Amino acid sequence: MAVDDLWYLAKKDAGGNKVPSQRNGRGKRWRVRNHGARTQLFEKKTDAERYDANVRADLARGQYIDPQEGKVTIRQWAETWRREQLHRESSANRVETALRLHVYPVLGTDEIARVRPSHIRSWVKDRSRVLAPATLRTIYGGILAPMFNAAVLDRVIGATPCVGIRLPELDSNDYTIATAEQVYALADSLPGWYRVVPLLVAGAGLRAGEVFGLEPTSVLWLKRELIVAHQLKDVPGRSPFLGEPKTKTSVRTVDLADAVGSELSRHVEQYPPVEMELTDETNPRSVTTRTTRLLFTTSRGTPLKRSAWSDVWRPAAVRVGLPPRFGLRDLRHYFATVLIFGGANVKTVQMAMGHSNPTVTLNTYVGYWPDALDRTRSLVDAALNVDTVRRGAVESGL
Hints:
CATH architecture of the largest domain: Orthogonal Bundle
Order of helices and strands: EEEEEHHHHHHHHEEEEEHEEHHHHHH
Number of strands: 12
CATH class of the largest domain: Mainly Alpha
Shape: elongated
Mean pLDDT: 83
Helix content: 40-55%
């Protein structure tokens, strides 16, 4: 029998009456035991029978969620989840940092089964005070929501609380688009051996790691092209190494404009590439240590770390009068807007930037296609222009 009466024994006395148990009158009376499910106690028999029926149905459908599983805290589940992800080392560090700084302080001690959409909305409101909209969206969409989805798949919880969540709108002012004069001013404000770096980013759309990982073989001088095949990665706790680009589409060939190519040629003549031994993890299945000749290094001839680059970049940006958080990624935005205002379509910009798909490009730069509105208006005006329509009607005899 699935539902047991804990106040009376199964046997009866000589008179056919129920025999009270030692716990008669104490605690919850009804116990439910089901194969594959934990024991649950109830005060009312109807509640016990209803629970028993539901558990049996869930077990038969393979949909049973053990209530005990849901008692794990957000921190405990998140730590298990993140260690199972196939993240690259740099991505794994970003996930760990985001969880530690922005998820655990607010939700970390909550039992995962008790988290409701209202809790997630409160988390969004709390974090919106300290995070930029784009960063908040990244943590929510790339970490928090997938983490709860994984809990559903593992039958830790029955449904994700990440539903109906409104995120802050992206502010078009999140990106500072420099002028051409500011790009050259930045170049002039940097030490000579870094002068061409902002031009490479603003003129070719390279990421910082892609620039710092450039070797002479990356430059096809006659074709006026740059081959992006790897990047220099700076991961906490490790020496810099060569690794895969950010996405599959980040492996690309970039046109080298004359203005950038001439500066890069001058850089190579004045500051010959420095040889050094680096671990090459561009192919994770065949990790090697090889001699590299990096085009950009520190003044001591060592690979560029983020901290070393920041030490020279921030003072230069301040001298030019750019915002404190202005970085190389903002110069990538300059490159993208040059293409957009030049008439390039979304796919062209995506391939040049090395974005994973056109949606990323469109979501990032939709506000920078203002001429698309003008073009739409022009097309509609041309089609519905009153004089044109009437003249056509007269000519056709209508």
